[in-house]
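REVIEWER CHECKLIST
Item 1: Sequence provided? yes
Item 2: Single chain? yes
Item 3: Sequence as submitted:
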Amino acid sequence: MRILRIILYVCIGTSVLYTILCFLGPVNMHIQAAHTINAPVSTVFPLVSDFGQWKEWSPWKQQDSTMVYVPEGTPGMVGHRAHWTSRREGNGYQMITALQPNAFIDLDVHFSEAQTVRAESKWFFSGDSTRTDVRWELMVYEEPFWVRGLLLGFGVEGVLDGYYKKGLKELGAVAEDRFSKSRQ
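Item 4: Structure as written out by the authors:
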């Protein structure tokens, strides 16, 4: 009987702690990373606006080499989308909703097929014939109450910040290599 009471207290304590985390967790999330790439926008932009090229620099693909990433539609155009499936990184899709060549890209992001949370990613590009300043943002709006505890407890914002910084660094390496080879 004593063991059952201890188990009950542990369950109640855990539930109370998790509920507190849910109250303290973020309702909205905003991740932002920026990087300067030593290549022109005309080299960098297609690596982002064509989902078929994301496999070369995506931090998520690097975390899970078995990830299946399937682009659909015309690269660099509104409506271009990509679906991904991953046992480690989850499933979802993203779609270009607006863009201005060599300046910005807006994406709707869905972390699952049945996602009710609104998420969008934005890319901003500026620079000259030798370098590009890139900013990558993610906004997630109105997280469900029960998810907020997980976001806070697992430090999801910090994890995503690391992914975005790593992704931009890898994007830079790919773009700089292509630019270097194009000048030879």
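Item 5: Key structural point noted by reviewer: The mean pLDDT is 88.
Item 6: Recommendation: ____
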